[in-house]
Amino acid sequence: MDIRRFFNKPRSVSEDPGDGDRACVSEAGCSYAQTSEEIDSAREANVSPAEASRQQRSSQQASEPAGDLGIDQPNQVVKKNYPSRLFSGKKRSFHSAWYTNRDWLEYSVNADAAYCYPCRKFRAPGSSMDSAFTLNGFSDWKHAVEMGKGLNKHAASKEHMLCATMWKDKEMRIATGREVSTLVNAEQLQRNRYYLSSIVDVIEFLAVNHLPFRGDNDSYVSMSDDGCGLFLSMFEYTLRKDPVLATIAQSIPHNARYTSHEIQNELLDIMSTMVTEHIVTEVGESFYTIKVDGTRDPTGRENISIVVRFINESYEPTERLLTIATADQGDAATLTDTIVEELSKAGLSPRRIISQVYDGASLMSGKHGGVQKRLQEKLQRDIPYVHCFNHQLHLVVSHALAAEQAVLDFFSTCNILYKFCRRPTVAILYKGERLKRLLEQRWTGHFGTVSVVLRSFDDLVTLLKEIDSQRTYGADVRVEAAGLLRTMSEPSFRFIAEMVHSILSYLDPPNTMLQSEDMDLLTGMQLVNSACVCVENLRSEIKLVALLERCRSAEPPMEKRRRTINPAFDSYIVEERIAQEDPNDEMELRRLYFSCIDSVCGEIKERFGERNCAVMGALKALDPEDADFLDASKIAPLLKLTNTSVVDTEYAVANQFLRARMDDTSPPDGGRWTMAKVLKYLHQPLEAMPSVITALKHALTFGASTALCENSFSTLKNVFSDHRQSMLHKRKANLIMLAFEKDLTKKFRTEWRDTVLRRFHSVAHRRLPLY
Description:
By secondary structure, the protein is α/β, with parallel strands linked by helices. 52% of the residues lie in helices and 7% in strands.
């Protein structure tokens, strides 16, 4: 694409005056500039021209009933039975026989009402036409075909006959090749498409890069002024760099410049819908896993991230953000209904859900009233629930380490140290690595904190000694530095730091790998179990002695005040004294070391060991390295979830074929054979064994983490910034979708551009012909 075309576009869309962008109010900047007729009607109504134009647009938009009505032709739905209503105690309904000699009649299933196609499409703005056939829908079935009433009365009205004449005239012009688009110069149509495509390019660029659209000034004629926002600024830059676009822009009518926030919202909605439709097409008839998580934005609105995991046409696991939904209430029933509604609205069948992955909150995971249970009851079938592995690892670390007070005291000291080094007077002297803030909601914060403290231990000690010895610092700073220096000088501090770092360093790789898109449930379990074995291997005398040797300080710890016997006991015979535990005593450190390892391993086995169920056994039986590889009896519970039959002969043949193939060759990308590689590289011969290939696809569809939902919340934070919080949820959701699924959004630069223009052009009352 020519780079001039990329930068020569107008700006984006806000639903309400949102996105930090205010509504278009100037005459030149509005996408519907006032015509002379609008000005005249405004004078008659004693309102401003802008208000008259706004009322006209509102009337046009309000008069378009939402739903399933026809766009190019009447939608004459034929059903065996239509919904019935009671009229004077008798049930009556719509009849398809009424279409006879009424080619203008159409029926809406959603509204259970009849409409008039030509009156909807060709009525004059502000006309006094009966709204029953254009907006509200006609549903008085009792008097529908009576003489002088209902359908007959409408067909005989002057307004209907005028609209019907205009409709037939348009059809005749289309049939004879004399439609409006052919009467306009073909070159002008191409110029109009070039102009609008530049607007689409700017919207795509700003959305993909999480950038705001609007500024303080929305006027088209003032786009070169300060405060006009990035949308108009980029469009103005494009006009300067692209002489062709600049020439075209001069011929665009003032009432069709398409730079208002309403047009931006419309284009954003079209683009977001196309991305969702592509995702639904990718899923196709495959079974899929849903991953759901929620967060509140700064305005307090709940944002529900719904992610689907499926196997694409290349036989690879894929995860896509389906939508960012919202709900007025936060209970499990409402959230369950919201999930099902959003899936159905997007075009996915909830019946194709094979598993569900959420966090461990009781709202989601409750065995009796949680979302996972309610979803199974609503769909009336078994849908396994997976507690997000990343959340579980956080619970493992936080619960295990919280069992020892010495470890809690260590992290409290690290937190104090972090705040101390952030003081401006202290930060100037500190030469080491920047300390990490302790994140209570993420155990990776503990690991990052310990890692930096160990790497910068000498720099921290030097800093504290320097501050403690200088009178130029205030007493409070010197006292705090002295206390921190004493704590860090104790052998137990360095020992706990080394011990925690050794344990968490084995959990960090699986935590990172679990967040990848291609991580399936079985591989995730194998990673966690491997990490648990590595932590258990730390439980040896040799490793403990090596750790103690590393922690022996070159300088002896500061001497503490010698304990003395209380003089009150001088007149008594003291038989026994209770010794106080010395945190630096080697026996206490030994106990602490083994206790922490046992706690971590115990937590992992307790939280992850419960997955030794039938479905987990089926997943293991699909692992090429498992002794029960392709054992049909063990795989049966997995296929039972989708009512897929197990063909024993297919598994027997596949077992022999795959074992011989894997013994003779290695995967094209190296490494060992896994479920994912078997499906990716050997799917062609397995297509003759549909039961086997279905089982492999089901197994890889099971996810292990809601990390993609968390990633979408990062996009939410960038899009819904402090200066963009006036936008409505629909615009926000569209922007997040386009920004997050940027690989699909970038298709609007090439292959999807013409589709966007055609969908935009198909909306009624367009003032700039494109086709």
